[in-house]
Design brief:
Elements lengths: L13 H11 L4 H8 L3 H9 L19 H9 L25 H4 L2 H11 L5 H9 L2 H8 L22 H15 L7 H28 L12
Helix pairs in contact: 1-2, 1-3, 2-3, 6-8
């Protein structure tokens, strides 16, 4: 019996890659699903724009994961399955805080601000784990007390390369489930969901203000009072 063929590596951001392939090629949904190693129904949802989260397309050609020759070959033959361009082996971390390359660390505040603005249901602990930051930094950005707040501009953390689309999707889905938010696939629920998001945002901001007001500032003169 022949040995089973090893499974080829998955693109770094499979859902974002699938989005780019849907928008820029004539590949079948099954070809895209096989290359990205996701379900064909997920590709269908991306094409129909019914996913819960708007995906940022990621060009696998520019990323060095796929050649134009492979795309053209697959477009000419619907039965052909594209092969990912082999790259250097990646060392995956199984535990511990997320490592962020030095060149990208300056982008963290922008990614944090984006999540705070668009997904207030995501907890500080989830943001800290996803981005690789601290709760103190998140609070400073939320309260506009960060030392560089004037230069912070909310940007999608996936676009910045701080996390993958799948990781962001999982965090948002978990937070939405915990908060009791309905999936925004039914347009009839979109207004209710938005109202609940606004309420969550207001409650968190009110809690932050209340916490700040209850803190008693230290009075150095109190040390000399009888």
């Amino acid at each position: 019996m022949a040995a089973p063929q090893p499974r080829q590596p998955q693109p770094l951001m499979p859902h974002a890659t699938a989005t780019w392939l849907v928008e820029n090629t004539a590949l079948t949904f099954q070809q895209i699903a096989d290359f990205c190693q996701i379900h064909v129904l997920e590709v269908q949802a991306i094409a129909d724009e019914t996913t819960a989260t708007k995906l940022t397309p990621r060009d696998p050609v520019r990323a060095g994961e796929l050649s134009l020759a492979e795309i053209e070959k697959a477009e000419a033959d619907p039965a052909y399955r594209m092969v990912i361009t082999p790259g250097p082996a990646q060392q995956r971390r199984t535990s511990g805080p997320r490592y962020t390359p030095i060149a990208k660390r300056q982008d963290k505040p922008d990614g944090i601000a984006w999540i705070l603005r668009h997904h207030p249901e995501v907890s500080d602990a989830q943001i800290a784990k996803l981005i690789g930051t601290t709760k103190a930094t998140i609070a400073a950005i939320r309260n506009r007390e960060h030392w560089n707040i004037a230069n912070i501009s909310p940007k999608d953390p996936v676009t910045l390369g701080l996390c993958s689309q799948r990781e962001l999707d999982l965090v948002i889905a978990a937070a939405a489930k915990k908060a009791g938010l309905a999936e925004a696939t039914d347009t009839r629920l979109s207004q209710d969901r938005q109202a609940m998001l606004e309420r969550l945002r207001a409650e968190r901001e009110a809690a932050q203000r209340a916490d700040a007001e209850t803190r008693t500032p230290f009075d150095p003169n109190s040390l000399f009072r009888g």
